[in-house]
Amino acid sequence: MTFNSNDIIDFFDKINNAGVEYVLLRNIGNELPYNFKANKDIDILVRAKDKVKFYKFMKHAGWTKILHPEDASVDLIYLYAMDRFNFFTKKGINIDICYQLSCRSTNRDEWLPLDQFINDSVWANRKKHNAFPWYEMSFEDELVHLVTRCVFDKKIFANNYNLRILELLQRVDQKKVIERFNKVFFKFTNVLLTLLEDRDFENIRKRYLEFIEY
After folding, report:
1. 8 Å CB contact between 185 and 192
2. pLDDT per residue over 66-85, tens digit each?
3. How far apart (Å, rounded) are the C-alpha atoms in residues 141 and 48?
């Protein structure tokens, strides 16, 4: 089952008109808006300063706020004053909201925001999709987001992510990517880039966890 693409496009048209700053976090496989399946969530990053405005928009637009799936975990911890995730639903469509680009720690799986430089870059460099009404990240910020998600959150590089990562590697400014990776992976950055360019996805997390040259 796929959702009505008009409902998805309508959501983005209305949030644009509400003046809420946001970006669509992921559209792996270009499923949105025409091939979005019922078991998926639409993942959106909303600027933290717009949280109240966003809440008012969602309530007025008929979305219902429900318990976020992450909140079912008794071990869920947010570090560094990170905003909690939110979850909204309407007509069976689920919207998963975060307010900072973040990742899990390698300690106890706590959630923590990525470096402020990266989070600021999202808003300074966001852009409108050339065919659909949503905003998205720059190629550099999207690449960092997908790689950190695979390393820290999913703990695996799935094929659909790999395809998008490879596409982004052909389109990014490498200096800007290195600048961002350095904020997360530090001295592992050069190794990481080599592994990505060699398409050696299956060894990235292992090599990162074993890396000791800090």
Report:
1. yes
2. 988 777 665 788 998 899 99
3. 17
User: What is the residue range of 192's domain?
Assistant: 138-214
The answer to whether the predicted template modeling score (pTM) of the entire model surpasses 0.70 is yes
The number of CA neighbours under 13 Å toward the Cβ of 153 is: 16
Asked if residue 20 belongs to a domain, the reply is yes
The whole-number pLDDT of residue 196 equals 98
Residue 113 lies in a domain: no
Q: Which two tokens stand for residue 87?
A: 């979850």
Q: Which two tokens stand for residue 174?
A: 């490498």
**Looking at residue 77, which CATH number applies to its domain?**
3.30.460.40
Query: pLDDT by residue (tens digit) across 141-195?
Result: 999 999 999 999 999 999 999 999 999 999 999 999 999 999 999 999 999 999 9
CA atoms within 13 A on the CB side of 39: 0
Q: What is the pLDDT of residue 100?
A: 97
Helix 139-148 and helix 174-185, axial crossing angle in degrees, nearest 10: 30
Contacts of 59 (CB under 8 A, 6+ apart): none
